[in-house]
Specification:
Oligomer: single chain
Distance between the termini: 33 Å
Helix content: 55-70%
CATH superfamily of the largest domain: Fido-like domain
Radius of gyration: 23 Å
CATH class of the largest domain: Mainly Alpha
Largest sheet: 3 strands, antiparallel
Order of helices and strands: EEHHHHHHHHHHHHEHHEEH
CATH architecture of the largest domain: Orthogonal Bundle
Length: about 375
């Protein structure tokens, strides 16, 4: 449905030229988003897919294993959309402080994303509301180190920005001027917590994501915070017991369509086309997450059988295997520490895992060797290859 522009244009003077900046209207859209007919079925399918994912998560013997990996997978994917070239293995190596050949600036950005998402989820778990203040805290974590550290971390921008082009005059989009940011973000916060409109959480998250991306309140990191906002809203509303639904891979795979639909909302008010795309993404992503979890569980069962069969001759093997499963890239010292076994015992256990094809050595060195849980990393790395 085309409603006309979903906001107003104001003339701003910046970088020596006058341009039209776009200020979005408050949410929800007027007239309301059409949730009847085929779109209602899309919504029901997306909710059902989330329900399946939530049911599986509740049955997992150790959900923290999946949460640890999924958060890092999301960090890699979301950062790749912004142009980083780090892989999941790069991030895991960096976290181990063993990063030969890793693009340091890129992997620092990805690591910051992990910290930002974890901080937001932890704060909400402690009862802190999803708010402008929390988004600023998340942004501060996101830009704490590396590129962007000089771009006012944790603060709304005080200068005009633009998207695409070499200057505001040839930009693809010019967000609201700085003087409008506080009001726009206050309106967005009220919408997020407004219970009078009775919108399904998936619909509300879809609308809020576009609104945030349109406001573009920070000098840097807006795309990543906008994707984090979806995860934080779904967690805040309790849609999933564990935050295992992340749309960055879907957005990465459909980048041209994603940007086209954001523009269509701003230019023509076509929220329905965006919502269809978003709900399809939720259904596809939740289904993929379920498939991935089943694949990982099958790998764990298979490898546990191998480990248990060899444990009589090598008593340290089960605990070292468990440590590698919890952190699928590790060195022997790290595994010995977390498995609470001696360094020699951990070394023998790792060698047995390598012989069994469960682990492989990454660094090629005789000392400080790093090992990866081969099948685990391969499953989680699907789709995370740098753009």
């Amino acid at each position: 449905m085309e409603r006309g522009a979903s906001g107003r244009r104001v003339v701003v003077s910046t970088v020596g030229e006058e341009v039209g900046a776009f200020v979005p209207a408050v949410l929800p859209p007027v007239p309301p988003v059409d949730l009847s007919g085929p779109r209602l079925r899309l919504l029901e399918q997306a909710q059902l897919a989330c329900g399946r994912l939530d049911g599986l998560a509740r049955l997992l013997p150790d959900p923290s294993l999946f949460l640890y990996a999924y958060v890092r997978r999301e960090a890699v994917l979301s950062s790749q959309i912004e142009g980083t070239q780090s892989s999941l293995s790069d991030l895991l190596l960096f976290e181990l402080d063993e990063a030969p050949g890793v693009p340091l600036d890129d992997v620092v950005e990805v690591s910051n994303y992990v910290d930002a998402l974890s901080h937001g989820l932890t704060r909400m778990g402690e009862g802190f509301p999803l708010s402008r203040r929390l988004l600023c805290e998340v942004h501060a974590r996101l830009l704490a180190r590396g590129r962007g550290a000089d771009k006012q971390p944790g603060e709304f921008r005080r200068s005009q920005n633009w998207i695409g082009g070499t200057r505001p005059g040839n930009a693809a989009f010019v967000p609201p001027p700085p003087g409008e940011i506080a009001r726009c973000m206050a309106d967005l916060e009220r919408f997020i917590h407004d219970e009078t409109k009775a919108l399904p959480v998936l619909v509300k998250a879809a609308l809020a994501h576009v609104q945030f991306e349109t406001i573009h309140p920070f000098l840097d990191g807006n795309g990543r915070v906008g994707r984090l906002l979806i995860s934080l809203m779904l967690a805040n509303e309790g849609l999933l017991a564990q935050p295992l639904l992340y749309l960055s891979l879907y957005f990465k795979q459909h980048r041209p369509r994603y940007y086209e639909l954001l523009d269509s909302v701003r230019r023509a008010g076509d929220w329905e086309a965006w919502l269809d795309f978003f709900l399809d993404g939720v259904t596809e992503t939740a289904g993929s997450a379920v498939d991935t979890a089943h694949s990982l569980l099958a790998v764990f069962r298979r490898d546990e059988d191998v480990v248990n069969a060899a444990s009589r001759a090598l008593p340290s093997l089960p605990s070292v295997y468990a440590a590698l499963r919890a952190r699928p890239v590790a060195n022997v010292a790290d595994l010995a520490n977390r498995a609470q076994v001696s360094f020699p015992a951990a070394g023998r256990a790792v060698e047995r895992l390598v012989e069994a094809g469960i682990a492989r050595e990454l660094t090629g060195g005789r000392r400080n060797r790093v090992f990866a849980y081969t099948a685990y990393v391969a499953i989680l790395s699907a789709g995370t290859e740098p753009l």
